[in-house]
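Hi support team,

I submitted a single chain yesterday and got back a structure, but I'm not sure I'm reading the token output correctly. Could someone confirm the output below corresponds to the sequence I sent? I've pasted both exactly as they appear in my results page.

Thanks,
R.
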Amino acid sequence: MTDDLDPNLDLCDQLFQVLQATPEGLAEYDLIQALKSRHSGHLPNLPLSDKLVLFRTHFLLFNALYRLRDRLWQQQSHLLQISPLRIRLLPYEPGTAALSEQDGMRDYYLDLTHLRDTDEREVERLLTSFWTRMQGSQEKQAALELFELDDGAPLDMLRIKHRYRQLVSQHHPDRGGSTERLQSINKAMEILTRYYN
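Hi R., thanks for writing in. Yes, this is the structure output for that exact sequence:
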């Protein structure tokens, strides 16, 4: 992608051009680099190592992506798949993926006060919150694996408690199990109770 983007186009139109030229889609970082290499004037041309620059670049990109997604949906021309791991255009298929009435991510990125009011301290807080949630999801996944439960299947406390009783019965030291294994099972139950109770 070496052709410069038309500077008169807004960021949505520039994104559409780049995504059309890359049918397999791009990760967020690669999409930012593609826009910069094609001289888009809509994103800060500053190093992404600065947390505030990174936040503002990310915000501007996702604001434009959600606006583009809405526009393409209204035109019934494409579906736009948006995630940090892959952003890509898909063919429009009526009735298959209607836009959600309540999309918290969309609402956040379309509210420009978040861009205006977010300072370095708030960016640091957002990053800390993100990594805490990521760590928590890994903790949850580890507990599900220990219980040999699939996160994709419907889970509720009744099913989790049933599995817990099975594992305690199977691994209790009085029945030849180990204290360490029982402690791991109890810790996993504590974690899953936080998520599913």
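A quick pointer for reading it: The two ends are 50 Å apart (CA to CA). Let us know if anything else looks off.

Best,
Support desk
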